Structures are given as C-alpha cells and as structure tokens.
C-alpha cells in the first residue's frame, strides 16, 4: 500500500467504559492529536459510544476480539504483521494507550521521526528500577512512535532466523548442556532463545516493547531506536523527577503510566483530587 500520510494515532482499548483517568487521557489526545487520523482499536462488537462522546473525530478500527483479551495477546498483536498492515498507508504510528498523557502537538521537535522506534526510556531494573538506576537502551511502548514500514520489514524477515532458532532449541534439548548454559548465563540464554530471539516462533509471553527496542536492533542493526537522552524529550515513565532534571526541567511531549506517580504528575495534569 502506498504511504499517503505521515502518522496515525492508535488508541487500543478493550472495554466499553472509561475510568476518570482514561477520559482525561483521551481528552488530551483530542486536544493535541486531532490533526492526525486517530484510530480507536477495539474488540469487534464492542460499544464505542463512551469514547466517541469525548473524541467525535475518532476513526473506528475493530479487530479480532481475541487480540485484546489479555496482556499477552495484546503484546502478540503488536508483533503481528496483520496489525501493521491495517495502517500501512501511514509512515509512522503513535501508540497512545489510555494511561498516557500528551502535553503538546510538536512531535517533530522531539526527533521522533528520525527513528524506527522511540518511547519513554528504560532504567536498569525496568519496573523495579531504583531512583539512581542508570538509563539503558530501549523504551516503553504505551506512548511511542514507530516506523510502520520498518516494523513490517522486520516481521517479514523473521523466517530467516528460524533455522538458527531450531538449532538453539536442539542445544537446549540436552538437559546437561541446558543446565550448564543457564548456570553460565543466569538463564539469559534460554530466555533470549525462547522469549526474545524466538518471539516469532515460540508461544512464550513477551513484552513487545522489549522486542522492538532491545531485541530487534540486535537482529537487524539497521533498525534505529532512540537513545535514552533523546527519548527523554519524547516521554517519561519511571523516575519522572529524575527525568525532569535530565531534561533541563522541561516536560516531555507526553508521558506513560502517569497515575502510578500521582504526586509528581498532579503538578502538570489537571487531576481531580
């Protein structure tokens, strides 16, 4: 399909009603992103009136309900070529989950379009990161931008790795060798083969943002992920106080999981208390 638009916005939901925080998130999306085609991605047959009442310009994109029945299936949807083909008429996709919040419409200023993937930077320890944990490569996908053609290219090339994956599986079939390798690598090897390197072949649960921002660049060096200091301009998630310092006391374009850090975000987001 020929690309006709720079960017679409994808808002994935799985239930017909919104919480107060989700409504606030959607209002911010309508305020800052309505110049783009904004798609509500929802289970086929779900009532969407609560969403369109807040954002009448939403485009409705029903999908197979099975894709949105669990976190695991949602992650698989975001690793499916079928999903990206729905939006192949756009160059970039902004994922806007309804625990995100956007402060501005100036996406270009963040440099997001210079990369194949950008999201709130990770810290060592991820969800359990200490306040002084170092930044590491990769980024959260709840508020993220990715290049659709690049994602389709990666997913269309995964078959090239299947023979190697099967070879690794044979090695792991030996309990003695498996025990030795796992002991040597603290299980990182087995996790990488089954859960990460083998994301296209195994049924193990994977986090799609780890795949796109950390695994894919190892497999496809041309796939460009924003470095942490650039990503700070785009989004915050964990350790927002520290990220604000690192960003020169400037807010990012948006943030993710803001309700997990209410004491920080209540200064910037109009939450009813």
UniProtKB/TrEMBL annotation:
Residues annotated as domain DUF5672: 58-256
Database matches in InterPro entries: DUF5672 (IPR043729)
Identification of the protein by name: DUF5672 domain-containing protein
Organism: Mucilaginibacter yixingensis
Lineage: Bacteria, Pseudomonadati, Bacteroidota, Sphingobacteriia, Sphingobacteriales
């Amino acid at each position: 399909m020929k690309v006709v638009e720079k960017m679409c916005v994808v808002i994935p939901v799985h239930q017909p009603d919104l919480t107060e925080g989700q409504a606030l998130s959607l209002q911010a999306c309508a305020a800052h992103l309505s110049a783009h085609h904004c798609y509500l991605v929802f289970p086929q047959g779900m009532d969407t009136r609560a969403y369109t009442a807040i954002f009448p310009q939403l485009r409705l994109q029903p999908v197979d309900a099975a894709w949105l029945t669990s976190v695991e299936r949602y992650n698989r949807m975001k690793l499916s070529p079928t999903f990206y083909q729905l939006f192949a008429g756009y160059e970039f996709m902004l994922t806007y989950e309804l625990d995100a919040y956007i402060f501005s419409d100036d996406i270009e200023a963040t440099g997001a379009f210079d990369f194949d993937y950008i999201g709130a930077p990770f810290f060592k320890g991820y969800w359990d990161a200490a306040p002084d944990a170092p930044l590491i490569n990769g980024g959260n996908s709840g508020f993220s931008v990715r290049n659709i053609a690049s994602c389709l290219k990666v997913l269309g090339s995964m078959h090239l790795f299947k023979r190697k994956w099967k070879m690794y599986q044979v090695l792991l079939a030996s309990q003695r060798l498996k025990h030795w390798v796992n002991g040597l690598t603290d299980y990182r090897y087995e996790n990488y083969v089954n859960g990460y390197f083998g994301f296209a072949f195994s049924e193990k649960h994977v986090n799609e943002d780890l795949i796109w921002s950390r695994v894919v660049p190892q497999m496809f060096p041309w796939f460009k992920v924003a470095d942490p200091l650039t990503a700070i301009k785009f989004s915050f998630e964990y350790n927002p106080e520290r990220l604000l310092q690192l960003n020169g006391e400037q807010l990012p374009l948006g943030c993710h999981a803001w309700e997990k850090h209410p004491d920080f975000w209540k200064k910037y987001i109009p939450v009813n208390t």
